Structures are given as structure tokens and as C-alpha cells.
């Protein structure tokens, strides 16, 4: 009887998968950018991990749940489930702890006991699939309206801090308003907003208060913050999101400075048609999409170790810098630093 433990096949399978994707891409069977396709396949890490556990005989319960999670996340990435894979991950990550605990309980038991544990894991996976397909929504509070007169402010200094969910920023239609919109939060949370005008500067700070266990249970699209800012005065904008998505439309706004951060998730920005400012977009893990209007003179400086870039025709790539059509190091009006160690940067031309 062979008592030697089997070697892990995780890294070999991962290398084979990556190689197969790029091979199919170079042969034309996969259209588009191979990196884009590979990013959609990140749930295979769960599937490969589950197969590795089965191959080594280290834990069948963990393996079944890992395979189930990977399959659900993969279906979400390819549009078969309405949730995003990151939203599902934020909802179901506690199952990894449950799987590890069940695995410790049933490991090394009799065959019958192991089969019972595997059946329990299958039930858990079935529940995940049912939940994902049903699109069950989380319970949240009603939307709290936001509205504030501009007053004597000659400029706005805006700070939005959202622990999780989606933030949407645009331009307000009412010329007399500093901002308006609404905030929807998870249960047991409440919005905290402060607006003060000092020396002609309107200082706006919005965050949330209260205790809520996993406040992002609604996914990346909930809780939802919608904040429209005045287009009558210059705006300095800072938005921080721990986990979720930002939809920032700067069209019509007089931007003086820009600092947007999403720790995990997606950051989508539409730049203004004109203006002169410095900005920073940070997204350690996830995707950044930037829409550039025709004629805007933009310089992007990218910082990333494993950063895949998609740049439209007409844009110039020079080392770590990307220039919009007609712009260069000397005449760029919008200078934006992209801090994204791991992920995908997509630059688009606005219609």
C-alpha cells in the first residue's frame, strides 16, 4: 500500500489552464483580448482547488463546496446569472469557513460518514445555486433623500465614504443646489451628512453610521448612493469604497481635483469634455473603465504589476503613460494616475 501523499496538482492545472486560454486566443478560437477572457475565468481557482483536494484525498466536503462556488461564480461571469461574481463572493464567503469546519469534522471518518458529509455539502451547493438563480434581494432601508442649497459657496469640496455597495455621482439639474440625490443603506445603518460653507468653500462629507453585519449583503449594486453635484462651481471630489462599484459621470462638472478609490470591485469614470486637473484612480483588485470624450486632452500614468490594458485606436502608449488623441506630455490638461496592482484597465472613447 502506497502511504506517500500525492503531490498537489493545483499549480500544474493552473498553468495548463492559462496556457490553454492564450493558445486558443492566438489560434482565433477565442476572440478579443486573452487577458479579458482570463480575468473572467478567475473562479477556476476554486474549481482547481477543489479538484486538487479530491486528487490528494485531503477533504471531500471542502472540495464539493469549492467546486460549487467556482461553478456559480463562473456562470455569473459569463452572464448566465444576474449577480456579478464579486457580489456573490461577498455574500457567500462565510461558506468557506463552514466548509473548512465540516471538513475537519468528517475527515478521516468511515465511508458512510464521509458520504453523509458529502451529501450535506451537495445540499449546501444546491442552496447556493437556487439563491443565485432566484436573485433574492437583501433587506434594506428605504432611500433617504439628499438635498442642500448651494448658499454662498464658490466651490465644493466633496468627500464620500461608502463601506460597500454602489456609488453614483453626476451633475445636479437645479442650479441653486449644492447637491441632491438619495442614499439606501442596509438595516441598522443610517446616513451621516455634513455640509458647511467656510470662506466660500462648501465642504460636503457623507458617510454611514451604525452597526450592520456584512452591510454589503445586497451585492455590489446595493446599498446604493446617488449623489449629484452642482455644475455651477468648481468641485474637488474624493470617493472611497471598500467593496463595490463606483459610477462617476463628470460630464458638465468643473473638476479641480479627483481622487477615487475602490478597494475591491469596479471603478467606472466618464471624464468631462474639458478642464484642467490632476486625478488619481485606485483599484487594487478589480477593473477600471475610463470613458474619454472626443477632444479631451488626457494623460494616464499607470502603476501596476499584473495590469492588463485595453486602449482604443488613436491613443498613444509610451511606456507607462497613455495619451488621448492630440495630447502629449506637454499639453495634457487632465493628468490621471492609475494605481491598480492587479486587474484590468479599459479606456473607452465616449460617444
Mean pLDDT: 85
Q: Which class of secondary structure composition applies to the elements? A: alpha/beta
Query: Largest sheet, described in full?
Result: 16 strands, mixed
SSE ordering: HHHHHHHEEEEEEEEEEEEEEEE
Amino-to-carboxy terminus distance? 68 Å
Number of helical segments with 4 or more residues? 7
How would you describe this protein?
The chain is an alpha/beta fold and 351 residues long. It is 28% helix and 38% strand. It has a 16-stranded mixed β-sheet that branches. Strand 13 (316-318) and strand 14 form a beta hairpin. The chain starts with 9 loop residues before the first helix and ends with a strand.
List keywords for this structure.
351 residues, alpha/beta, 16-stranded mixed beta sheet, 28% helix
Furnish the topology, listing elements before pairings.
Layout (H helix, E strand, L loop, with lengths): L9 H17 L7 H7 L3 H13 L3 H18 L7 H8 L1 H13 L4 H24 L9 E6 L5 E17 L5 E7 L6 E9 L2 E9 L14 E6 L4 E16 L4 E17 L6 E6 L2 E8 L5 E6 L2 E5 L5 E3 L2 E3 L10 E6 L2 E8 L2
Helix pairs in contact: 1-2, 3-4, 4-5, 4-6, 4-7, 6-7
Amino acid at each position: 500500500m502506497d502511504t506517500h501523499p500525492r503531490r498537489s496538482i493545483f499549480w500544474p492545472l493552473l498553468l495548463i489552464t492559462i496556457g490553454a486560454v492564450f493558445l486558443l486566443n492566438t489560434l482565433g478560437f477565442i476572440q478579443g483580448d486573452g487577458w479579458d477572457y482570463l480575468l473572467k475565468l478567475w473562479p477556476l481557482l476554486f474549481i482547481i482547488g477543489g479538484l486538487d483536494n479530491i486528487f490528494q484525498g485531503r477533504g471531500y466536503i471542502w472540495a464539493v463546496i469549492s467546486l460549487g462556488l467556482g461553478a456559480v461564480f463562473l456562470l455569473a461571469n459569463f452572464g448566465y446569472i444576474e449577480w456579478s461574481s464579486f457580489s456573490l463572493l461577498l455574500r457567500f464567503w462565510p461558506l468557506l469557513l463552514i466548509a473548512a469546519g465540516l471538513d475537519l469534522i468528517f475527515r478521516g471518518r468511515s465511508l458512510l460518514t464521509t458520504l453523509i458529509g458529502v451529501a450535506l455539502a451537495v445540499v449546501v451547493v444546491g442552496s447556493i445555486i437556487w439563491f443565485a438563480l432566484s436573485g433574492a434581494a437583501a433587506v434594506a432601508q428605504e432611500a433617504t433623500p439628499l438635498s442642500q442649497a448651494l448658499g454662498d459657496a464658490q466651490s465644493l469640496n466633496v468627500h464620500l465614504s461608502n463601506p460597500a455597495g454602489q456609488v453614483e455621482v453626476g451633475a445636479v439639474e437645479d442650479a441653486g443646489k449644492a447637491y441632491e440625490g438619495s442614499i439606501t443603506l442596509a438595516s441598522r445603518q443610517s446616513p451621516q451628512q455634513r455640509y458647511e460653507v467656510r470662506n466660500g468653500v462648501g465642504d460636503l462629507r457623507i458617510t454611514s453610521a451604525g452597526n450592520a453585519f456584512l452591510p454589503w449583503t445586497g451585492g455590489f449594486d446595493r446599498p446604493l448612493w446617488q449623489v449629484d453635484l452642482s455644475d455651477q462651481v468648481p468641485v474637488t471630489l474624493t470617493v472611497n469604497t471598500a467593496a463595490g462599484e463606483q459610477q462617476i459621470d463628470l460630464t458638465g462638472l468643473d473638476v479641480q481635483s479627483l481622487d477615487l478609490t475602490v478597494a475591491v470591485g469596479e471603478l467606472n469614470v466618464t471624464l468631462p469634455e474639458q478642464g484642467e486637473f490632476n486625478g488619481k484612480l485606485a483599484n487594487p483588485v478589480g477593473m477600471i473603465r475610463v470613458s474619454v470624450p472626443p477632444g479631451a486632452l488626457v494623460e494616464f500614468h499607470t502603476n501596476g504589476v499584473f495590469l492588463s490594458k485595453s486602449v482604443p485606436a488613436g491613443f498613444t502608449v509610451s511606456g507607462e503613460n497613455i495619451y488621448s488623441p492630440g495630447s502629449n506630455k506637454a499639453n495634457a490638461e487632465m493628468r490621471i494616475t492609475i494605481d491598480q496592482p492587479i486587474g484590468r484597465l479599459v479606456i473607452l472613447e465616449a460617444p
